[in-house]
Amino acid sequence: MTTDAGPAAPAPVTVELLGVLAYGELSAFDRLAEDARQAPTLAGRAQLSTMAAAEIGHFRVIEEHLAASGVDVADAMAPFVALIDSYHASTAPRSWPESLVKAYLGDGLGADFYREVARWVDPATGELVQRVLADTGYSAFAEREVHAACEAQPEQRDRLALWGRRLLGEAVTHAQRVVAERDELAEFIVLGSGESGGVAGLIRTVQSAHGKRMSRLGLS
Amino acid sequence: MTTDAGPAAPAPVTVELLGVLAYGELSAFDRLAEDARQAPTLAGRAQLSTMAAAEIGHFRVIEEHLAASGVDVADAMAPFVALIDSYHASTAPRSWPESLVKAYLGDGLGADFYREVARWVDPATGELVQRVLADTGYSAFAEREVHAACEAQPEQRDRLALWGRRLLGEAVTHAQRVVAERDELAEFIVLGSGESGGVAGLIRTVQSAHGKRMSRLGLS
């Protein structure tokens, strides 16, 4: 149903997906900004702060897209605040390399998930999601810093590899909880993924890409 | 002296001015991001986070400008980290309205100072400074929120007015310390300001504009 006021209201499940994505970006901003403070150098602090600012750029794109359809981004995000905060609370980095690994893998995990999902929504939303997930351009920085940290202290490598696996586990657990609480979202994933196997198939896709990223960090 | 590698190296005092400005932006990002976490609503948190991200946009403009002349922004910022951190430590907001008042007045104070100074440097740097100081577009948001807070709790008005005066005092004290430690900067201000009266004249200009901003917040 359209009105003279603007484009058609998006499907409720699209609002949910964009709500999770928006709060994912806003909370990533918050955590990266906090982690930036722990950087060992001014240059590292500036880099992580810039990554954080890029998340807000993405957040604003979603906010404007929703606003154009009369949806308040704060309303769309509200149902997901507690679970995403819980993910971050359970994965608070305790060192600079842990911050970098989390930023790098977290960005990647989110991108994997949304890249799949972008194919199942209306084209305008799909295009928006692709735009929001464009690499913030700091992957190379994170890879370089993590490699340098592991060379400086080789015993870090095992600890960071464990940390990377824990991040995947926590992300999957929290994502499953989101889906379990939102019937429409679960149904949307089952329908969208089709023969590639619903939520379980989606998790397999994300796991495989996670492994490749761990390799690029030298942590496999 | 120019080399084939890029434009002429900027005057040392220009590097100092851009160094203070760059670290001012980077630390403002950090503080705004921290304050955003205390926002009473998701909408307020998103707004303050967006203000924080805008500071990084400005920071990057300075970084690129310095890099084009072969100057590392981290080197340019280093001499000013301790004093600017000390300003922020002495003015840590204890409530959401205090955060907004600090963000609003702090942005304004910085802009006043640099708008004066922009007239005394080379044209390319002057143009850059003007661009970096363009209103981040959130003044209206801060004014609205502070007015609303004072209407909801009229006893806040006096406390916030006191807070606003303290912020000016701390900013002036810290700016004087920066100048006292950097002879070239002091000389540059005396020469640049000419008949309008050196550092004291600059402080008078900033004070007068501060008073107008306090009025716009309803705190005069």
Structure commentary:
2 copies of one chain form a homodimer. The model of chain A has no long low-confidence stretch (mean pLDDT 89). Chain A is globular, with a radius of gyration of 18 Å. Chain A has 220 residues and is mainly alpha-helical. Helices cover 77% and strands 0% of the residues of chain A. Chain A contains 10 helices and no strands. The relative contact order of chain A is 0.13. The A-B interface holds A 26, 29-30, 33-34, 36-37, 41-43, 45-46, 49-50, 52-53, 56-57, 59-60, 63, 72-74, 77-78, 81 and B 26, 29-30, 33-34, 36-37, 41-43, 45-46, 49-50, 52-53, 56-57, 59-60, 63, 72-74, 77-78, 81.
Give the class of chain A from helix and strand content and strand pairing. Answer: mainly alpha
Beta strand count of chain A: 0
- Radius of gyration of chain A (CA) equals 18 Å
DSSP summary: helix tally of chain A:
10
Which two chains form the greatest contact, residue counts included? A-B, 27 and 27 residues
**Residue ranges of chain A: pLDDT <50 for 5 or more in a row?**
none
What's the helical proportion of residues of chain A? over 70%
SSE order of chain A: HHHHHHHHHH
The assembly state of the depicted protein chains is homodimer
